């Protein structure tokens, strides 16, 4: 797994208390059993803190899975 | 800072593994969870939730706290911050979140989760735009008018009407956020040159809220605005979160806002602190009196440092005025210290303001114990303030029950720190609270007289004790509730009844609630004792019997028991029953009933039930006490 993906999975895993492998294996965050709107909000803020970025409202709607977030970060951090 | 942050969750993980074998005390839990950083608190909360302890129902009731959240917007985001505030005082949290945007239904519906039994605090999040939704979305500028004020008042009537309804179903504490203007006026700068103004609607609504809530028992305005002001509106709000999740505030702020629950929760659990223990050198004045002399220490208005200590005196004085007991714990020659208090006219605090004075060359832990013993309180009633970090660490290690304030080396902010302090807060400030400092000073004179008297009986005669028994009424109910909440030692059942419940019982013939005020030649004690009696089918039950520790051992307790027997006879009962429920602190009352002829009927869940047969019992009032009973 790419290092960025690994970091994203780790953030999500810590917040919703699901093993990082399980997070990485899920195509969408919504596939995770413990995912809910509270988890979504905390994951957004957690990723912002981890990577030192701030998402705009359009980007927030794209926080849907590990790959999607990695792609988003790649564009933002170019 | 980062190092600290990493350390605490590791300590916590170790503690969580260890704890299931034996439930931790409040002190042990509070010491681990009481961290000021939101990110750390969130991480610790995750560990707590993952542990088996969080779901456990094996916790005793007094160590559990159940908070309900009602209002507008997504309140689930508040659940975590509320739990972490509860854990930080060593209690086990349970949070119930009301229906989304269904505040009025939550308050009025009989089967509502928010007003269900067990919920002890209901925290209500409703902002002015939530209560006046169409006015704020359609034409907010039109609010700046007499019609706007009227609309605000009507909206508040709806809210307080629903609260009145809910009050009939629950005795939980209601906390309602005040209103904060979070946007600029739609009238721009002209808003400041007119009345009614847009900002003015908020001020008006806050005033109405305070007035209306003060009419509902156990209901408080929650000062969210104060919290927001300190945290900063710009840091607290996040427009994206409002759009994404219908929650306008960032989690960091919600953690901060929930910290404000702690004084309410401590107060309902009887865990408020009572005594401020102060060091002297470099705490009540700058410098060391033994070296600098009474005229050399810095206090007064001569320079900024002296002024800082004087401001601190004023802040201590504020606490004293509302009932906090003061004590001195200092390594000094008593003569040097007396000289300062006598000769320095710029000392705001006087030596007579202190109820216990420990000035010697012993260690400060022994002195703290001596203070607690002298004032008849537990170590967990003490707050320790000392400029010396080594002394603070010593107390933390040797007497963890004492709350040790982390004092900065710079005294300039001490007064502000003390004014923000919420550890001493009770739910009410009664007349007795305002007089408490003076009454404890009088106790010092009593103790000195007791040492002089040759035997105890002649001391009691010499006291000329006068006890006055008054049934519960509007004027004394706040004091009854405060005694129920605060009294730990001479307390038979330690039931912390709420004000609404006491008000309800006071009007019912099957209940008899009596207060006892005492006075002797040294001064007045105020109301010190309460008995709550319930008329059962064939016997009289003592629901509660308690006496403030200041008045113990002088005969008031015998008067209370005698009066309870009188009441039982008046109800035509032959039997007077009471149950002793042991707590960590109420050993002083353990033998009270058996010592007065009560016979044990057995023990269940640790509670011992006693009965007195009034036909054979001989229970006269003590001879040295003059007794006046109102209503007879």
State the share of residues found in helices of chain A, binned by percent.
55-70%
Taken in chain order, the helices and strands of chain A follow as HHHHH
In oligomeric terms, what are we looking at? heterodimer
Total domain count of chain B:
3
The CATH topology of the largest domain in chain B: Rossmann fold
Task: List segments of chain A where confidence is low: pLDDT < 50 over at least 5 consecutive residues.
Answer: none
* Overall pLDDT level of chain A: 90
CATH architecture of chain A, by name, is: Orthogonal Bundle
CATH homology superfamily of the largest domain in chain B: SGNH hydrolase
Stretches with pLDDT under 50, minimum 5 residues of chain B: none
Output the CATH topology of chain A: Non-ribosomal Peptide Synthetase Peptidyl Carrier Protein, Chain A
DSSP strand tally of chain B: 19
CATH class of chain A: Mainly Alpha
Strand fraction of chain B: 15-25%
The termini of chain A sit apart by 20 Å
Counted up, domains of chain A total 1
Overall spatial form of chain B: globular
CATH class descriptor of the largest domain in chain B: Alpha Beta
The proportion of strand residues of chain A reads under 5%
Compute the number of helices of chain B.
Answer: 26
Written account of the structure:
The complex is a heterodimer of chains A (78) and B (632). Chain A has five helices and no strands. Chain A has 78 residues and is mainly α. Chain B folds into three domains: 59-268, SGNH hydrolase (Rossmann fold, 3-Layer(aba) Sandwich), CATH 3.40.50.1110; 275-420, HAD superfamily/HAD-like (Rossmann fold, 3-Layer(aba) Sandwich); 452-629, Gcn5-related N-acetyltransferase (GNAT) (Aminopeptidase, 3-Layer(aba) Sandwich), CATH 3.40.630. Chain B is built from 26 helices and 19 strands. The A-B interface holds A 14-15, 17, 37-38, 40-42, 44-45, 55-57, 60 and B 43, 46, 49-50, 74, 76-77, 240-241, 243-245, 247, 250-251.
């Amino acid at each position: 797994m790419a290092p960025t993906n690994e970091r994203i999975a780790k953030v999500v895993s810590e917040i919703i208390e699901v093993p990082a492998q399980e997070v990485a294996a899920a195509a969408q965050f919504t596939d995770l059993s413990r995912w809910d709107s509270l988890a979504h909000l905390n994951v957004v803020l957690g990723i912002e803190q981890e990577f030192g970025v701030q998402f705009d409202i359009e980007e927030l709607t794209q926080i849907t899975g590990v790959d999607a977030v990695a792609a988003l970060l790649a564009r933002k951090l170019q | 800072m980062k190092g600290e942050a990493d350390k605490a969750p590791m300590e916590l993980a170790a503690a969580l593994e260890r704890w299931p074998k034996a439930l931790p005390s409040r002190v042990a839990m509070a010491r681990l969870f009481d961290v000021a950083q939101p990110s750390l608190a969130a991480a610790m909360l995750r560990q707590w939730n993952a542990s088996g302890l969080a779901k456990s129902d094996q916790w005793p009731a007094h160590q559990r706290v159940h908070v309900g959240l009602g209002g507008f917007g997504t309140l689930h985001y508040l659940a975590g911050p509320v739990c972490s505030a509860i854990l930080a005082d060593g209690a086990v949290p349970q949070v119930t979140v009301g229906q989304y945007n269904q505040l009025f239904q939550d308050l009025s519906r009989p089967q509502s989760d928010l007003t269900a039994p067990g919920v002890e605090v209901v925290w209500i999040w409703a902002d002015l735009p939530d209560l006046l939704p169409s006015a704020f979305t359609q034409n907010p500028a039109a609010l700046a008018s007499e019609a706007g004020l009227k609309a605000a008042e009507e909206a508040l009537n709806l809210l307080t009407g629903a609260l009145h309804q809910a009050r009939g179903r629950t005795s939980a504490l209601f906390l309602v956020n005040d209103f904060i203007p979070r946007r600029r006026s739609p009238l721009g700068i002209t808003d400041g040159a007119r009345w009614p103004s847009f900002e003015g609607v908020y001020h008006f609504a806050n005033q109405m809220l305070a007035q209306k809530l003060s009419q509902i028992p156990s209901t408080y305005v929650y000062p969210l605005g104060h919290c927001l002001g300190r945290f900063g509106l710009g840091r607290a709000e996040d427009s994206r979160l409002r759009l994404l999740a219908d929650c306008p505030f960032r989690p960091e702020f919600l953690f901060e806002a929930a910290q404000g629950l702690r004084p309410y929760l401590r107060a309902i659990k009887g865990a408020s602190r009572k005594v401020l223990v102060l060091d002297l050198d470099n705490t009540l004045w700058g410098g060391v009196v033994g070296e600098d002399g009474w005229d050399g220490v810095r206090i007064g208005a001569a320079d900024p440092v002296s002024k800082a200590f004087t401001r601190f005196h004023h802040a201590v004085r504020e606490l004293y005025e509302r009932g906090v007991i003061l004590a001195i714990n200092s390594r000094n020659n008593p003569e040097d210290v007396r000289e300062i208090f006598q000769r320095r006219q710029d000392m705001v605090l006087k030596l007579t303001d202190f109820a216990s004075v420990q000035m010697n060359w012993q260690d400060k832990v022994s002195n703290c114990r001596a203070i607690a013993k002298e004032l008849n309180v537990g170590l967990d009633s003490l707050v320790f303030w000392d400029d010396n970090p080594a002394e603070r660490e010593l107390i933390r290690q040797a007497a963890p029950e004492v709350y040790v304030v982390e004092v900065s080396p710079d005294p300039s902010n001490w007064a502000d720190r003390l004014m923000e302090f919420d550890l001493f807060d009770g739910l009410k400030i009664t007349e007795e609270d305002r007089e408490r400092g003076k009454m404890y000073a009088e106790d010092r004179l009593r103790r000195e007289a007791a040492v002089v008297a040759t035997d105890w009986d002649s001391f009691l005669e010499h006291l000329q004790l006068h006890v006055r028994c008054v049934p519960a009424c509007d004027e004394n109910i706040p004091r009854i509730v405060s005694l129920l909440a605060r009294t730990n030692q001479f307390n038979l059942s330690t039931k912390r009844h709420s004000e609404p419940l006491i008000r309800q019982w006071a009007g019912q013939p099957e209940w008899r609630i009596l207060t006892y005020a005492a006075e002797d030649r040294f001064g007045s004690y105020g109301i010190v004792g309460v008995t709550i009696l319930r008329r059962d089918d064939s016997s009289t039950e003592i629901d509660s019997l308690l006496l403030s520790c200041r008045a113990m051992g002088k005969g008031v307790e015998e008067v209370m028991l005698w009066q309870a027997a009188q009441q039982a006879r008046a109800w035509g009962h032959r039997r007077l029953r009471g149950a002793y429920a042991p707590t960590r602190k109420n050993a002083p009352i353990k033998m009270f009933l058996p010592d007065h002829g009560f016979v044990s009927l057995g023990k269940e869940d640790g509670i011992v039930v006693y009965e007195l047969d009034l036909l054979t019992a001989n229970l006269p009032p003590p001879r040295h006490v003059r007794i006046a009973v109102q209503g007879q």
